[in-house]
Design brief:
Structural class of chain B: alpha/beta
Radius of gyration of chain B: 18 Å
Number of strands of chain B: 10
Structural class of chain A: alpha+beta
Largest sheet of chain B: 6 strands, mixed
Number of helices of chain A: 13
Number of strands of chain A: 11
Helix content of chain B: 25-40%
Oligomer: heterodimer
Radius of gyration of chain A: 34 Å
Strand content of chain B: 15-25%
Strand content of chain A: 5-15%
CATH topology of chain B: Rossmann fold
Shape of chain A: elongated
Number of domains of chain A: 2
Largest interface: A-B, 37 and 40 residues
CATH architecture of chain B: 3-Layer(aba) Sandwich
Distance between the termini of chain B: 9 Å
CATH superfamily of chain B: P-loop containing nucleotide triphosphate hydrolases
Helix content of chain A: 40-55%
Chain lengths: 402, 239
């Protein structure tokens, strides 16, 4: 008989049939893709939430100084400190991964800070003098409790900004007082907030403007020389940045530059980074497993409830493989819909979590790419077994369950 | 007219000693629902299989229609033994030569009338556009030219059964199997469906119908009585 030919169902027909299966019953499609979407959403939301947590914690490590390096004059051949070159700040600022820098200049020797001119010269209260360029505040991520920081005008005036401890010891809380420094009255421009680990030396200092010091104390030893440069690196790049600092500051003789950092803090940051990354992967893995089971379950139900249709198609001459192909194509279509929906849901959920927790919103790019792919792969794998099994049910049995 | 008198013509469907036994799970040999049966259906034959419910008539129909394998014996469609084929080849035989109409219509609920009928050609190697064209023609030929875009739920039982008939017809099968096609319909609608089926059979397609309604069976030239799994062809009494 001429009619016995095993006809192929074209890919276009396969996709058309799958799309009809998906669009023909919107409620079923919505429920099935919801199951998939929830799986992917939990994957994305959990990895996103843990990545946001990680970013928040690392940012606070950085604020404490984990991404901070500092340069000080090293000892020269004569065992005397060699001042940092005037060109160093600019050269360092040009290096890769350097976010910002701040410069301290040498304080004139012999200055003490007093509340009034009646206090004996020896009762310094442990308050030191620092001379800062305006960029220091940002480099240290320091904040002002009250008042203002130096700008281009005030750096030339007899005013001071007090560190938190210095202000406390002097009993100054509002920037209206005058202080008696080195035999001269200074206005209090502002008071720094307690800045934690970074700047103990700033906390106990009365800070003077660099240009005021240069003009007022011109000719005194060390005045105008750079005594310390703070370097704030981009998150996670501190090791690389530290490696290039000495050469950048003093090309040719980097051995005369002392580069330091908060070593324990850097180590703690790395530890936190590693352990949170592991936590994120573990959470993602669990979410993937749970989501995968959800997707698989959805697919099994979707195929089982359509045994009648399978019987009809078999009676119409569909080969088992063609029926299986149809259901796998449908599974893939549902997975794509659900995967994209889940991505949106998951990103939204992670965003809300980050917003509520006050954390930076981070979604690993890998998850964005992998999420939908994973959902399609799991969906197809999960759909494969029930589809193949259903396709091999004898047509009469399948029809009976219609 | 049984078709058996012209020996040089290959029968559309031929059953040789087919029987069906369902295992009963115990130590017995199982339950034999169909005793060994021989049957030849030639082109244009109109056959009614009658008998009380549970007598094995649907089993005979599904075996003849290749939907179910017999326990013993063989079924030949167009001269080819389908019982030794692999399932994929059997499916190709169904797609090429056999149409089905069921009591419960078995339309796909998510497709409209055209989609359901076009699905009848999906596995026969016909392109999308031609499938739809032929589906429209088939629907018009069963009087449903005005219901092309309706889904099964929007149609009456009689209309749904006519869509199912169009789906079976659209590929010009050699034989059409109808299992209680009027069972879910009122008698007037059922009458129309039978008229439609016999009219189609008049164009050369063999028609095998299972029914427990003797009034319907009386309209068929050949009648096969099944009782307790034993099939006996009645001698025609009005030739």
């Amino acid at each position: 008989m001429s009619k016995l030919r095993r006809e192929r169902v074209t890919l276009a027909d396969l996709i058309r049939t799958a799309l009809l299966g998906v669009t023909g019953n919107p409620q079923r499609t919505a429920l099935a893709s919801l199951g998939i979407a929830l799986g992917i959403a939990s994957l994305v939301a959990l990895t996103g939430a843990s990545a946001s947590n990680q970013a928040a914690l690392l940012a606070s490590f950085d604020a404490m100084g984990a991404n901070l390096a500092f340069l000080r004059p090293g000892l020269g051949p004569d065992q005397q400190p060699v001042p940092l070159p005037e060109t160093a700040p600019e050269a360092i600022a040009r290096q890769d991964h350097v976010e910002r820098i701040g410069v301290l200049e040498t304080a004139p020797a012999g200055l003490s800070v007093f509340r009034t001119d009646l206090v004996p010269e020896t009762a310094t209260g442990g308050i030191t003098i620092a001379v800062a360029r305006p960029d220091l505040l940002a480099a240290l991520d320091a904040r002002l409790a009250v008042g203002r920081w130096f700008d281009d005008a005030t750096r030339t005036l007899p005013v001071t900004v007090l560190g938190a401890t210095a202000a406390n010891r002097l009993g100054v809380s509002v920037p209206v007082d005058l202080l008696y420094i080195g035999g001269q009255w200074y206005g209090v421009l502002g008071i720094l907030a307690d800045s934690g680990l970074v700047s103990d030396e700033i906390d106990t200092a009365a800070i003077l403007g660099d240009q005021w010091v240069r003009s007022e104390f011109a000719g005194l030893a060390g005045v105008g020389e750079i005594t310390q440069i703070f370097v704030r690196a981009e998150p996670g790049t501190i090791d690389a940045v530290r490696g290039v600092l000495a050469n950048a500051a003093r090309p040719g003789s980097p051995q005369w530059v002392n580069v330091g950092g908060l070593g324990d803090l850097i180590a703690a940051r790395e530890l936190a980074d590693d352990s949170l990354a592991t936590l994120g992967m573990a959470l993602g893995g669990i979410a993937l497993l749970v989501g995968g089971v959800g997707i698989a379950n959805t697919m099994v139900v979707a195929v089982m409830e359509r045994r009648g249709e399978i019987g009809v198609r078999r009676a119409l001459g569909a080969r088992p493989g063609q029926v299986a192909a149809q259901f796998i194509t449908e599974a893939a279509t549902l997975s794509i819909i659900g995967g994209l929906g889940g991505l949106v849901l998951g990103v939204g959920a992670a965003g809300v979590i980050a917003l509520v927790a006050g954390q930076p919103f981070v979604i690993p790019g890998l998850v964005l790419g992998v999420g939908p792919v994973v959902s399609v792969v799991i969906g197809c794998l999960a759909g494969l077994q029930p589809a193949v099994r259903a396709a091999h049910i004898p047509p009469t049995v399948a029809l009976r369950s219609a | 007219m049984t078709g058996m008198d012209s020996l040089d013509v290959v029968p559309v469907v031929e059953a040789r000693g087919v029987s069906k036994t369902y295992p009963d799970g115990g130590a017995h040999d199982g339950l034999m629902v169909l005793h060994p049966t021989d049957l030849v259906i030639a082109s244009g034959d109109q056959v009614a299989i009658v008998g009380p419910s549970g007598s094995g008539k649907s089993t005979l129909l599904t075996i003849l229609g290749t939907l179910e394998a017999p326990t013993t014996g063989s079924v030949l469609v167009g001269g080819r033994d389908v019982t030794t084929m692999r399932e994929g080849e059997r499916a190709a035989v169904r797609a090429g030569a056999i149409g089905f109409v069921f009591q419960q219509f078995h339309l796909l609920p998510t497709l409209n009338a055209i989609g359901n009928v076009a699905t009848g050609l999906l596995y026969s190697g016909v392109g999308h556009a031609e499938r739809r064209e032929r589906a429209v023609t088939a629907l018009e030929s069963v009087g449903l030219g005005h219901r092309l875009d309706h889904r099964p739920k929007q149609m009456s039982g009689g209309e749904q059964q006519r869509v199912a008939i169009a789906r079976a017809l659209v590929r010009n099968p050699d034989v059409l199997f109808a299992d209680e096609p009027t069972g879910a319909l009122d008698s007037a609608t059922g009458e129309n469906v039978i008229e439609l089926l016999t009219e189609i059979a008049g164009r050369g397609t063999a028609l095998v119908i299972v029914t427990h309604d003797s009034f319907i069976a009386d309209q068929f030239a050949r009648r096969i009585q099944i009782r307790d799994g034993v099939a006996i062809e009645e001698v025609p009494h009005h030739v």
